[in-house]
Design brief:
The complex is a heterodimer of chains A (about 270) and B (about 240). Helices cover about 85% and strands about 0% of the residues of chain A. Chain A is mostly helical and about 270 residues long. The chains are: A mainly alpha (about 270), B alpha/beta (about 240).
């Protein structure tokens, strides 16, 4: 019994050490990525813009239909449920504020990052992992090209820009789509509700949703790149993709909770 | 154009397995060293140590008299700008076309305009007999010989002072192999670049006054009489010189 407990605590301790090691390694990658941006003055990279454009195309532009559909469905559901139920509880006048809190503050940045995790996080981890296996990362290093600067940095910029854009796009489609649907189904005057919503929307709400989407974009890019760079053989590629999704989702939810707590507590 | 590479008492261990055991080597500016050996004898590991891609378990590596063994990765990136390396697997960037792969080192240095890059890449393709029909193709559409040619073109376009080649002729048709040998010879004669290469069979390579070695049981053994003589007079771990 005692021996079992000792083994249990030793195992738990080893796991904790592993997690801290992973976090410190991720922090190092994050530092290296920002440092690579500073270093670029010494090593100008003409390929950087094309890499960033490619990342934005894959992550942002190609996700427009999917994010638009999800935004329309979620927005319709939320707007309809709120419109039909809030007056019953005598809180109909708070509809616009609730919509701002739910869609702008919580749903949009989270949904946008979730789509990016599923589409691009896995792809990025598998892409970098495959590059490691096929020695492309080594080839860059031996040419004097920093792989962080060539692969990770464009992914960071591309994913952050994409998540921010998809977030704004999600908010627009969710609210406009939801209100338009509400007008057709319940005959609610959209103009009045939209005006109220814009009134309820404050600068700090916009700043909050943008900060969240930047943070989520950074998390997806960091976790996915890190898992991709850990790949040592071809068997590690699918594992990297799985770990990238799981890790990105976990850290996104954790940071979402921390940011929301900080925002509403202030 | 000169580059001196020195390996001092390099050992490499993977678990209980000793891959390299006290290898010392000096490649003088304009020197050529070819070493052969059976698959898995540590040829690629030795080349990667030469390029600073992996750290040896013990021993020191010098580039032009500067020790790189404990150099920071950023300093290594700067120093590697005068080194060309061709991997046994081509290691071309998969989402870049042939043209972009060859242009990559130039573009990332930012030292040449787009027009100059274009001109240099086309010149390099011509020198390597790479058809312009494949310039927009991606690596997956190329044959082994074409992949190797493109990889060598990418390494040569920066006019390296030291060229490290891992099995450059494996999987080659005779025509492409001859082209590669003649391009390398021309570069060696004209520019005086230092060349270090691994090959399954060292006899497949022309002499070029090269130092030829076999890597056996983690140690370099000369296959040239002159070097065999030198080896017989000196202890195994002393330097082995290969001069032009």
């Amino acid at each position: 019994m005692t021996r079992g407990l000792i083994w249990f605590f030793l195992g738990a301790w080893a796991r904790i050490v592993d997690v801290f090691r992973m976090l410190s390694s991720m922090a190092e990658l994050l530092f290296d990525t920002f440092y690579a941006a500073v270093r670029r003055g010494r090593t100008p990279n003409l390929s950087l813009m094309s890499q960033i454009n490619r990342q934005i195309l894959y992550t942002g532009v190609e996700a427009f239909w999917l994010v638009g559909s999800i935004a329309l469905l979620c927005g319709s559901a939320i707007v309809l449920v709120a419109m039909l139920n809030m007056p019953r509880f005598g809180v109909g006048e708070y509809f616009s504020k609730i919509l701002v809190i739910v869609v702008v503050g919580e749903l949009a940045p989270f949904a946008a990052s979730l789509v990016v995790v599923g589409r691009s996080g896995t792809a990025l981890a598998a892409y970098i992992g495959t590059m490691r296996v096929s020695r492309e990362v080594d080839a860059l290093e031996v040419m004097g090209i920093d792989p962080i600067q060539f692969i990770v940095q464009p992914a960071f910029v591309g994913i952050v820009v994409s998540v921010v854009c998809l977030n704004v796009y999600f908010i627009t489609i969710a609210i406009l789509g939801g209100l338009t649907l509400a007008q057709f189904t319940t005959g609610t005057p959209v103009g009045i509700f939209f005006g109220n919503m814009l009134e309820a929307l404050q600068f700090k709400d916009v700043a909050f949703t943008l900060i969240k989407s930047v943070a989520f974009g950074l998390i997806v890019a960091l976790v996915s790149s890190w898992h991709g760079l850990q790949v040592r053989n071809i068997r590690g590629v699918p594992m990297a993709a799985i770990n990238a999704v799981v890790g990105s989702m976990f850290f996104t939810i954790a940071v979402n909770v921390i940011l929301s707590l900080g925002y509403y507590a202030l | 154009m000169s580059y001196r590479l020195e390996l001092h008492d390099i050992s490499m261990r993977c678990g209980d397995n000793t891959v390299l055991d006290g290898v010392s080597l000096q490649v003088q500016p304009g020197g050529v060293v070819v070493f052969g050996g059976r698959s898995g004898c540590g040829k690629s590991a030795l080349l990667e140590i030469c390029a600073g891609l992996i750290k040896p378990s013990s021993g020191r590596v010098f580039w032009n008299g500067e020790e790189i063994t404990d150099m920071s990765k950023y300093d290594l990136y700067d120093r590697r700008r005068s080194i060309g390396y061709v991997f046994q697997v081509h290691a071309l960037i998969a989402n870049h076309s042939v043209f972009d792969n060859i242009a990559l080192p130039l573009r990332c240095r930012g030292e040449a305009s787009a027009a100059q890059v274009n001109e240099k890449v086309l010149g390099m393709m011509e020198e390597m007999h790479i058809s312009r029909d494949i310039e927009s193709k991606f690596p997956e559409a190329l044959s082994t010989a074409q992949l190797k040619s493109v990889a060598l073109a990418r390494a040569l376009i920066i006019n390296p002072k030291l060229l490290i080649l891992d099995e450059p002729l494996s999987g080659m048709d005779p025509f492409t192999a001859n082209t590669i040998i003649s391009v390398l010879h021309q570069r060696w004669e004209r520019d005086g670049i230092s060349i270090v290469m691994a090959a399954h069979s060292v006899s497949a390579w022309p002499q070029w006054e090269a130092g030829r070695f076999h890597l056996r049981k983690g140690r370099l053994e000369s296959v040239d009489d002159a070097f065999a003589m030198a080896l017989s007079l000196k202890p195994q771990r002393k330097f082995i010189y290969a001069r032009k």
